[in-house]
Amino acid sequence: MKAIVDRFENDYVVLELEDGHTIDIHKSKCPLLVKVGDTVQLSDEGHITPDQAATTSRKKEIDDLANDLFE
């Protein structure tokens, strides 16, 4: 399942799922390099794997929308 890192709260990573719901995953199941805004894959066991290609694509899409807005 694909999700976006929304924020960090104490010992948890808050993920926003594709349907808009959020879930909390303990930081121990999250790679240290993951940061807010990153796209990740969430396994059935609750482990998080970064999805660098999806993160890059999402950031480019957001930048393009911002550029169109301010032109």
Descriptive notes:
The chain has 71 residues and is α+β, with helices and mostly antiparallel strands. The chain has one helix and five strands, in the order E-E-E-E-E-H. The protein has a five-stranded antiparallel β-sheet with strand order 3-2-1-4-5. The mean pLDDT is 90.
Structural class: alpha+beta
Kindly report how far apart the N and C termini lie: 35 Å
- The coarse overall form would be elongated
Sheet with the most strands, sense and barrel status = 5 strands, antiparallel
User: Roughly what fraction of the amino acids lie in strands?
Assistant: 35-45%
Tell me roughly what share of residues is in helical segments.
25-40%
Are there runs of 5+ residues with pLDDT below 50, and where?
A: none
Number of helices: 1
Radius of gyration: 13 Å
* Average pLDDT metric: 90
Strand order of the largest sheet: 3-2-1-4-5
What is the N-to-C order of secondary-structure elements (H for helix, E for strand)? Answer: EEEEEH
Number of DSSP strands?
Answer: 5
Can you tag this structure with a few keywords?
71 residues, alpha+beta, 5 strands, 25% helix, elongated
